[in-house]
Amino acid sequence: SLIRDKVTLAEATSNPAASSSAAMLEKTKAAIANLIEEDAQKRGDGTSLTGTFVRLAWHCSGTYSKNDGSGGSNGARMRFNPEAHWGANAGLKPARDILEPIKVSEQVSEQVKKLIFTFSNYTSIT
User: Could you identify which of 27, 32, 83, 98 might form a hypothetical disulfide with 123, taking C-beta atoms 3.0 to 4.6 angstroms apart as the criterion?
Assistant: First the structure.
Protein backbone atom coordinates (compact mmCIF):
# COMPACT_ATOMS: atom_id res chain seq x y z
CA SER A 1 0.00 0.00 0.00
CA LEU A 2 1.02 3.61 -0.32
CA ILE A 3 1.12 3.95 3.44
CA ARG A 4 3.52 1.03 3.67
CA ASP A 5 5.70 2.64 0.98
CA LYS A 6 5.87 5.98 2.75
CA VAL A 7 9.36 6.18 4.19
CA THR A 8 10.69 8.10 7.13
CA LEU A 9 13.44 10.68 6.76
CA ALA A 10 15.84 8.34 8.56
CA GLU A 11 15.07 5.52 6.12
CA ALA A 12 15.41 7.83 3.15
CA THR A 13 18.84 9.03 4.20
CA SER A 14 20.18 5.61 5.14
CA ASN A 15 18.73 3.60 2.26
CA PRO A 16 19.30 4.80 -1.33
CA ALA A 17 16.36 2.76 -2.66
CA ALA A 18 14.02 4.24 -0.05
CA SER A 19 15.37 7.70 -0.80
CA SER A 20 14.61 7.23 -4.50
CA SER A 21 11.12 5.94 -3.72
CA ALA A 22 10.42 8.83 -1.36
CA ALA A 23 11.63 11.35 -3.93
CA MET A 24 9.43 9.76 -6.62
CA LEU A 25 6.39 9.90 -4.34
CA GLU A 26 7.06 13.55 -3.53
CA LYS A 27 7.41 14.43 -7.23
CA THR A 28 4.15 12.67 -8.00
CA LYS A 29 2.42 14.37 -5.09
CA ALA A 30 3.73 17.76 -6.27
CA ALA A 31 2.51 17.11 -9.82
CA ILE A 32 -0.98 16.25 -8.57
CA ALA A 33 -1.00 19.27 -6.24
CA ASN A 34 -0.04 21.46 -9.22
CA LEU A 35 -2.96 20.03 -11.22
CA ILE A 36 -5.32 20.89 -8.38
CA GLU A 37 -3.96 24.45 -8.12
CA GLU A 38 -3.97 25.09 -11.88
CA ASP A 39 -7.51 23.78 -12.20
CA ALA A 40 -8.70 25.92 -9.25
CA GLN A 41 -7.18 29.00 -10.87
CA LYS A 42 -8.89 28.24 -14.19
CA ARG A 43 -12.24 27.80 -12.45
CA GLY A 44 -11.88 31.00 -10.47
CA ASP A 45 -14.97 30.16 -8.43
CA GLY A 46 -13.41 28.77 -5.25
CA THR A 47 -13.87 25.13 -6.25
CA SER A 48 -11.15 22.60 -7.04
CA LEU A 49 -10.50 19.01 -8.02
CA THR A 50 -9.99 18.06 -4.37
CA GLY A 51 -13.53 16.81 -3.84
CA THR A 52 -13.57 15.12 -7.23
CA PHE A 53 -10.36 13.23 -6.44
CA VAL A 54 -11.86 12.08 -3.12
CA ARG A 55 -14.95 10.88 -4.99
CA LEU A 56 -12.80 9.24 -7.66
CA ALA A 57 -10.89 7.20 -5.09
CA TRP A 58 -14.08 6.31 -3.23
CA HIS A 59 -15.78 5.05 -6.37
CA CYS A 60 -12.67 3.31 -7.63
CA SER A 61 -12.34 1.39 -4.39
CA GLY A 62 -16.06 0.73 -4.29
CA THR A 63 -16.07 -1.00 -7.68
CA TYR A 64 -14.38 -4.10 -6.27
CA SER A 65 -16.42 -7.26 -6.81
CA LYS A 66 -15.69 -10.14 -4.48
CA ASN A 67 -17.58 -12.42 -6.88
CA ASP A 68 -15.09 -12.22 -9.73
CA GLY A 69 -12.24 -10.10 -8.33
CA SER A 70 -12.82 -7.28 -10.80
CA GLY A 71 -12.77 -3.60 -9.97
CA GLY A 72 -11.13 -1.92 -7.03
CA SER A 73 -8.24 0.51 -6.83
CA ASN A 74 -5.41 -1.72 -7.98
CA GLY A 75 -4.62 -1.00 -11.62
CA ALA A 76 -6.78 2.12 -11.98
CA ARG A 77 -9.09 -0.06 -14.07
CA MET A 78 -11.92 2.43 -13.80
CA ARG A 79 -10.39 3.94 -16.94
CA PHE A 80 -11.71 1.00 -18.94
CA ASN A 81 -15.08 -0.57 -19.71
CA PRO A 82 -17.23 -1.69 -18.11
CA GLU A 83 -16.29 0.30 -14.99
CA ALA A 84 -15.77 3.60 -16.82
CA HIS A 85 -19.41 3.60 -17.88
CA TRP A 86 -21.09 2.35 -14.71
CA GLY A 87 -23.73 4.86 -13.63
CA ALA A 88 -22.14 5.42 -10.22
CA ASN A 89 -18.95 6.59 -11.97
CA ALA A 90 -20.71 9.25 -14.03
CA GLY A 91 -18.84 12.55 -14.10
CA LEU A 92 -15.47 11.08 -13.12
CA LYS A 93 -13.96 10.93 -16.61
CA PRO A 94 -12.53 14.48 -16.41
CA ALA A 95 -10.71 13.59 -13.17
CA ARG A 96 -9.37 10.37 -14.70
CA ASP A 97 -8.28 12.22 -17.84
CA ILE A 98 -6.45 15.00 -16.00
CA LEU A 99 -4.38 12.39 -14.12
CA GLU A 100 -3.40 10.47 -17.25
CA PRO A 101 -0.26 12.52 -18.10
CA ILE A 102 1.04 11.89 -14.58
CA LYS A 103 0.13 8.21 -14.78
CA VAL A 104 2.07 7.65 -17.99
CA SER A 105 5.11 9.61 -16.79
CA GLU A 106 8.30 7.60 -16.41
CA GLN A 107 8.94 9.45 -13.16
CA VAL A 108 6.02 7.69 -11.46
CA SER A 109 6.56 4.33 -9.82
CA GLU A 110 4.62 1.32 -11.06
CA GLN A 111 2.78 1.04 -7.75
CA VAL A 112 1.63 4.65 -7.84
CA LYS A 113 0.54 4.19 -11.47
CA LYS A 114 -1.68 1.31 -10.36
CA LEU A 115 -3.11 3.37 -7.51
CA ILE A 116 -3.08 6.83 -9.13
CA PHE A 117 -6.74 7.53 -8.35
CA THR A 118 -6.27 6.67 -4.69
CA PHE A 119 -3.00 8.61 -4.57
CA SER A 120 -4.74 11.69 -6.01
CA ASN A 121 -7.17 11.48 -3.08
CA TYR A 122 -4.30 11.15 -0.60
CA THR A 123 -2.57 14.14 -2.18
CA SER A 124 -5.66 16.30 -2.21
CA ILE A 125 -6.38 15.86 1.51
CA THR A 126 -2.82 16.06 2.86
Answer: 32
